[in-house]
Fold these 4 entries.
Entry 1:
Amino acid sequence: MSSLAASAAAPAHAPRRAWLTDLPVLLVAVVWGASYLAAKGITTAHTVVAVLVLRFALVLPALAVAARRRLRALTGAQWRGAALLGLVLSGVFLLETYGVVHTSATNAGLIISLTMILTPLGEAALTRTRPPRAFLAAAALSVLGVVLLTQGGGFTTPSTGDLLMLLAALVRTAHVLAMARIRSVRDADALSLTTVQLGAAVAVFAVLAAVPGTGGAAPWTVAIGFGPREWAGLLFLSVLCTLFAFFVQMWAVRRTSPSRVSLLLGTEPLWAAGAGILVAGEHLGPAGLAGAALVLAGTAWGRRTAAGAAR
């Protein structure tokens, strides 16, 4: 009797449970989409390194405390592998942050979404397998979209920021592929792996900040000069876009499928475009709007095609 009642009640409650899991993940996609505008609002070309030091130094102690037991269990090879990934990750953040300073938040969020196309292409190149034709078509659609997106005012040379964001997408792809191929980190848990990576990245930023002529303004100088608006933006990037986002992903992937989490996080460029247009008043001409639509369509199509091929 009780088992029948439970099975009868399950369908009614399942959608509710799925929604309760999906909502925080979708919120992560929203804050990640807004992160480009937030970074653009508090960063200049001379404060990129300082802002990165402050952003990750604020959350690293909390991660270290949460992961302290798991960190002790890491082997020397796992520490070295995670630190190497952290060096690559530091390059991703540097390119992204410098890029968003020199382009619009809308362009930044849409161009970086090409990672979803570049990663399966890179994996296919490493394994010497040919991607499905549908995926290649989706990739071509996304590339055409980026061309149109960056030429909204007429066909000119893409901005420095656009090129930096494209390079950031390439390095982010390398980071994802390295995580899958470095054997020592495959068995490491996500919390300790992320903590070591962010620690290595902060070390890179701190070294750059300490070298005269390379890091721009010192982190403490930037922190002193921040007003309430800048501190709000920094806390948004640190607490919501880093700490909250990481823990939600860990929580959600245990309660739903990784594919579902990836699908929800894949809406990030939509929120980036929305924040740039609605909040910052950024403008996309007809060519830019067509390009944005093609990027979104191409990445969504490519993600579905890659997921189908994996199955």
Entry 2:
Amino acid sequence: MASIDEILAGGDAGLVVLAETSAEVFQDCTPDLVRKLTEKEYNVVIITINNPSTILKKSYIKSGIDVEKVFFIDSITKYALGGLPEDKDESMYFINQPGSLTDIGIELNKSFARLGGQKVCVIIDSINTMLIYTPSQTLIKFIHFLSNKLRLLHYLGVYICINGSIDPLLTNQLKSLSDEFIKL
């Protein structure tokens, strides 16, 4: 099992990584991952389901992360607020509801068009929360679609999940759609 540092050192494009973490360190692992990616000149597109993009961006700035290379596909803010936040900016794209995988796919395609020819990493934060809003088989179909799209575009993908909290059959399906399995 490789580490994220080994994967980034290898410079492998087109890899899909299933990253498992514990619930205790979950909140800290994404900022650490984003920092490592931006330091390696990746543009990071985060599909955020857990936390609103405005809160994440403020946290990243406070942690010294270069947010010029971070873009958010935010699927929770509009759903929770019933509209857009006042402090939104051009790095944030909002989806009506977390279970709208089609809208997420559309925003990803727009992001890919804007970032064409650059190093890109897509992070799903997190698979566990997506399962609250999306049936597992529908989510697996989306992950299959996204994984192959990332490989074809030579982009890196990191799907974060909390260990022990997903059905083992689903975990095995996610592993089969990934090129690497790591622990954060």
Entry 3:
Amino acid sequence: MSLTLRTISREQHLAYIQSLPAASHMQVPAWADVKAEWRSESLGWFDPSGEMVGAGLVLYRQVPRVKRYLAYLPEGPVINWYAPNLEDWLQPMLAHLKHQGAFTVKMGPPVIIRRWDSPAIKAGIQNPDVKRLRDVEATHIEPRAFEVADKLRRMGWQQGEDGGAGFADVQPRYVFQVPLADRSLEEVHKGFNQLWRRNIKKAEKAGVEVVQGGYDDLAEWQRLYEITAVRDQFRPRPLGYFQRMWTALNAEDPDRMRLYFARHDGVNLSAATMLVVGGHVWYSYGASDNIGREVRPSNAMQWKMLQDAYALGATVYDLRGISDSLDENDHLFGLIQFKVGTGGQAAEYLGEWDFPLNKLLHKAFDYYMARR
């Protein structure tokens, strides 16, 4: 099948995304408005009959002092990754991006290679010889994903040994997901571990209330988020970023982004943002105060968000990134420990891949990013 690729309008791009069961929130046209510091372009793949069969949001970042660009497709493009003629999909894209002035292309195939269910992860945590998720035997392996990786390597795409291709992965390679398809809410609740169920009940008895907020509540979100940043030692995004995200995403779809608060005695103790694209729902950012933890606001909030995702007809509730460390002494271990309590699955994506269109500039930029 011969495919053609060309720039498409945002309307065409959105219509294609809306025709799919799901796609990454980073591949909707409005994500370009969220990442306003990047130049953007929507690409469409067309079959011989003229029907659109794929789409991709490209973000272009200019390198210092040179009019050349890093072209980035976060968690995309949205194409048939298992197509036998994968080269026919990606070669036109590379040619187009080179013509646009890109010196290198970075993409994140939305292809899951392995899954581990909660019992397997728990067994790994309890085994003193196991330090990484990759050391645990996977519950499910997708053979076609290995074929995709082999094809990409043969085409000249590069990936680091640890999943960090070139500039290292920007998006998480390991995520945690709660499957909702063909399950009742009661089954989902029963899948929680004993501690989670007890904490949800404790929050209910204490009178914790979970409510949705709006644009005007983002300042309160930011207050909790900055408390979290100090506690967990990361650099917080500014309030303007979340305001832009809310405005851009909800202008495209009024239910694309939601804001939740868990409060007790009128005081907001935790907060989270939720993103929705088709049947895929993400818990994208979380925040909490240093007080009130004894009433378990975060468990109550996650349960409410899960219930709302289920009511929306979601097939998966995605808790986003985790580290693959199962070492209790690792500062990121608490993240997987908290999420595994939902009874979901850890999933490993193929990771991000680079294609150097100009090897010298690619290497120089790689070095520049490594020293930042």
Entry 4:
Amino acid sequence: MRAWTVRQWGAAGVAAIGTALLMGMATAIIDNPVFVRMIPTPWWAYLVWITSAVLLGLIVGTYVTPRGQVKRSDSAQHRPTLGAVLLAWFAVGCPTCNMLVVLALGASGAVTWFQPLQPVLAVLSLVLLGLALRSRLRNAESCPVPNSSVSVLDSGGVRGTDGA
């Protein structure tokens, strides 16, 4: 990350702030008129909320390249990150406000069964986000994008501008 450009840090910052706002508003960690928590937010949920937003922002920063470079990405790499973000969302959300949990377990089941699992979901989500970031950073170091200019052909292939 030492070699990151302003563009990469900017994307990471915007993604982190956007994630924090979206997750904070939807889980009512941030007071708002649309969503209301029925159970107070535990102290650890604030740490998980901010940490997951920062980690996701950094992961987004790994997908941004300096101008003039082409970076391919495999959609299969996005799945673990999406899963980790969803786990963080469930971890910091109000157990009785989550319609999926209430439908599956009922309101008393949400408090009895789901609420005690939320810290486990939180740790699991942060570990998965950390592993995803580590993997993205390692892959960026082991497979750097070449600095040569490339052109994209109509057929979708990529070749060098020297005709090779």
